[in-house]
Every structure is written in structure tokens, then in C-alpha cells.
Amino acid sequence: MSEVVLSLKNATIYQDKNPVLTDVNIEVKNGEFLYLIGRTGSGKSSFLKTLYADLALTDGEGSVVNYDLKTLRESDIPYLRRKLGVVFQDFKLLSDRNVKENLLFVLKATGWTEKEEMDVKIEEVLDKVGMKGFAFKMPHQLSGGEQQRIGIARALLNDPELILADEPTGNLDPQTSVEIMEVLRKINTNGKTILMATHDYALVLKYPSKTLKFEGGKMFEVVQRTV
């Protein structure tokens, strides 16, 4: 399948009305894995926020999972986000709820109502990230790597067409980072499209894939050996 899940043409990415990236052109097809690399402040997070409509696209053309970012209405944003899975650096788990309750919160917020279906889905995503049996653990009982696995499971709940991972290993030690990377690569092998922003060049070298570099207000593809 070569369906395009993301396309930006001549786009400018803004943060607080200031352009951080100009002349952005990208096309991502179903099943691809892309790294986004560059220094802090180079525009990686702003780029991802534009894709899930936290920042508006005002200049250029853009579509994500068949939603036109330029004409996107406020009321359409929740529906766009249901087709995306977002993984954050700092996990963003609700500290007063156990793992299952964290995942139930997302399912209910995105329109699920049948208890049995929700239970089945939670078991399924926990199994995919190697966390079966952890449903009743509280976040503080989990290691950083385990919390990030739950973060990835949460991103999978609505069977997203595109996963956006913003520094998913940024708070983890090298060995745990490799374990999280293995989870993401397995998910990608099973057909999910993933964009991953990272500072961890060791991971980029260990798991080579298409790489986009953010530098000087531009985004461009780099060949692996020059990363």
C-alpha cells in the first residue's frame, strides 16, 4: 500500500506567530518510519504540533490522514486526533489512576461506551507493548521505561493511521531506550506509520531509517552516514 498519510507543500510552521520552519515539503506513505533530528529549538516539536493541530497551518498546503490542515475546523480536531497516536517524552500518565483507568479515560473521551469492548482493547494494546498483567499498577509503581510503554499503548488505542513520537526516549537510560525502540520498530513492522523526533543519534545509527534534519529554519532529508 502506498497511500499518503501526510503531505505538506511549501508550508511555513509558526510558533507564537514567529516562523520556525519555512518551505516545508514532505510526503509520508503508509508504513514508513521517519526520524526527525535537530537541535532543541530547531522546530521538531512545532512541526509535530502542527500535524496534530495544536498549532494552526496558515501558510502552504497540508493534509494529515485525509484532513486538510488549512481548512480544518475546530470541531474536526478531535476526529483528526483519533486517527493519530501521540507519544510524549514525559509520558503524561494520570498519577491518580492505575494503568487500566488511564487507558479507559482515553477510550471514553474518544467515544467508546461498551465495557467489554474497552476491556478487550486495553488487553490488546498492553500485550503489544509487553505490559500484559500491569493493568492495575499505579504509574508511580512503574519504571520510566514501563511508563513509556503504557504511553505507547495509549497511542495505539484507536488504531491510529499515524503515530507521532516526540522524543519518546528522551527521559530514559540507553538500555531502556533500546527496549522502547524495539517496541516502536515492531509496531512499525506490523504496518503503522511512525514519525519520531529524537536527539539520540545512537538509536538512529542502530536502527537506520529515513531521516529528516531540522536546521536553520529548514527541514531536509539526510543520508544515514552523515547523521
Automatic annotation (TrEMBL):
SMART domains: AAA. One of its GO terms (biological process) is cell division. GO terms for cellular component: plasma membrane. Residues 6-227 form the ABC transporter domain. Keywords: ATP-binding, Cell cycle, Cell division, Nucleotide-binding. Belongs to the ABC transporter superfamily. Part of the ABC transporter FtsEX involved in cellular division. Important for assembly or stability of the septal ring. This is Cell division ATP-binding protein FtsE. It comes from Flavobacterium cucumis.
